[in-house]
Write a structure and sequence with these properties.
170 residues, 8-stranded mixed β-sheet, 6 helices, Sdz-33 F-box domain-containing protein
């Protein structure tokens, strides 16, 4: 059982270098088992953090190496029953990355339901992360897209609004 120190963790600098990790090594990393995780600079590991994080709340900033394929894979993994503990995840993307992505590629092969303009959601970082860092970005998201996990009928809402990709389990 993990101690409370592993409940929330904030990494401010590129101090976690895992560029040479294999897929198997990512699966066993303790950092991927932290319930509330904030990484201020994901660097070259952006896609690995997105795809391997399976706990409750994740905030990944400066996601310099993400492509539409990475988001599509993340969503399909959730739809196939992975990431059962995940409640929310948010990726802050540089403008040049955001503008290189398309919703058509992100949602390719996924049945979606676009939400009305009036739907708004605030990102929940989890109480322990908010307690320790008052400088986290605050945002409200509009115009989301709902996706369904067929195995259990659960829904999630995805927001793709500059400069964010956000996922909320409903």
């Amino acid at each position: 059982m993990m101690t409370s120190i592993w409940t929330s963790w904030i990494i401010r600098y590129n101090s976690f270098d895992c560029t040479n990790y294999t897929e198997e090594m990512w699966e066993i990393q303790k950092i991927m088992k932290i319930k509330n995780l904030v990484i201020w600079n994901t660097g070259k590991q952006s896609s690995q953090f997105l795809c391997h994080f399976k706990e409750e709340h994740g905030l990944f900033m400066r996601c310099d190496h993400l492509k539409s394929f990475d988001f599509n894979r993340f969503l399909k993994n959730w739809m196939n029953g992975e990431k059962e503990h995940l409640k929310s995840i948010c990726c802050l993307l540089p403008k040049y990355i955001f503008h290189s992505l398309t919703e058509a590629e992100i949602f390719e092969g996924i049945q979606i339901d676009k939400l009305e303009d009036s739907v708004q959601k605030k990102f929940d970082y989890g109480p322990l992360i908010e307690k320790y860092d008052r400088f986290l970005p605050r945002c409200a998201f509009m115009n989301g897209t709902k996706i369904e996990r067929k195995s259990d009928g659960k829904w999630a809402t995805v927001f793709f609004t500059e400069p964010h990709f956000a996922f909320f389990y409903n």
